[in-house]
């Protein structure tokens, strides 16, 4: 991640992320851990060049969106970040976030707690916390659980 960006450039990406980005806590089924919840974030847009520029600055992976509402007349792409990339990305943009500030706060608390424990060690309390945080994020999106 490029940490030498100008303030105006950070504000630009924060504004774009506020409108076109996402923060989610997603269920996953891992090979070594039966099930859990992980932080993900990214940007969805039809402008591949813009996402490639963001990828050059922040990392992540770009994929073509093909199903559901993304099946339209022009291609739609997603730049997606893994958990720790999402965390760092949000930390950089945070001073300028408006619409996704509450979601970012939830993401920070979620990831910081997850990073404090040993890999694969989840107590019942950890599981309950993760589920609660996921439900909060989903409620902010206005979707059903």
Describe the fold and architecture.
With 145 residues, the chain is α+β, with helices and mostly antiparallel strands. The chain has five helices and four strands. It has helices at 7-20, 48-58, 83-93, 101-116, 124-141; strands at residues 21-28, 36-45, 61-65, 76-81. It has a four-stranded antiparallel β-sheet with strand order 1-2-4-3. Helix 4 runs antiparallel to helix 5. The model has no long low-confidence stretch (mean pLDDT 89).
Task: Name the descriptors.
single chain, 145 residues, alpha+beta, Endonuclease I-creI, four-stranded antiparallel β-sheet, 5 helices, globular, Homing_endonucl, Homing endonuclease LAGLIDADG domain-containing protein
Brief digest:
This is Homing endonuclease LAGLIDADG domain-containing protein. The chain has helices at residues 7-20, 48-58, 83-93, 101-116, 124-141; strands at 21-28, 36-45, 61-65, 76-81.
Topology:
Elements: H1 7-20, E1 21-28, E2 36-45, H2 48-58, E3 61-65, E4 76-81, H3 83-93, H4 101-116, H5 124-141
Antiparallel strand pairs: 1-2, 2-4, 3-4
Coarse shape: globular
Name of the CATH homologous superfamily: Homing endonucleases
The CATH first-level class comes to Alpha Beta
Number of strands: 4
Mean pLDDT across every amino acid position: 89
Per DSSP, the total helix count is: 5
Instruction: Name the helix and strand elements from N-terminus to C-terminus, one letter apiece.
Output: HEEHEEHHH
Q: What is the CATH fold-level name?
A: Endonuclease I-creI
Fraction of residues in β-strands: 15-25%
Largest sheet: 4 strands, antiparallel
Work out the radius of gyration. 16 Å
Overall structural class, as computed from helix and strand content, comes to: alpha+beta
Number of domains: 1
Distance between the termini: 33 Å
Task: Give the % helix.
Answer: 40-55%
Ranges where pLDDT stays below 50 over 5 or more residues in a row are: none
CATH architecture: Roll
Strand order of the largest sheet: 1-2-4-3
InterPro entries: Homing_endonucl
Protein name: Homing endonuclease LAGLIDADG domain-containing protein
């Amino acid at each position: 991640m490029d940490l030498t960006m100008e303030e105006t450039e950070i504000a630009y990406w924060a504004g774009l992320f506020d409108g076109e980005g996402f923060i989610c806590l997603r269920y996953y089924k891992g090979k070594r851990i039966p099930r859990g919840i992980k932080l993900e974030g990214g940007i969805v847009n039809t402008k591949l060049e813009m996402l490639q520029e963001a990828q050059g600055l922040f990392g992540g992976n770009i994929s073509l969106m093909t199903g559901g509402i993304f099946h339209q007349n022009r291609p739609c792409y997603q730049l997606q970040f893994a958990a720790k990339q999402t965390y760092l990305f949000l930390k950089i943009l945070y001073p300028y976030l408006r619409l996704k500030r509450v979601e970012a706060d939830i993401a920070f608390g979620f990831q910081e707690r997850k990073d404090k424990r040993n890999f694969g060690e989840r107590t019942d309390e950890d599981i309950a916390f993760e589920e609660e945080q996921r439900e909060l994020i989903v409620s902010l999106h206005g979707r059903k659980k």
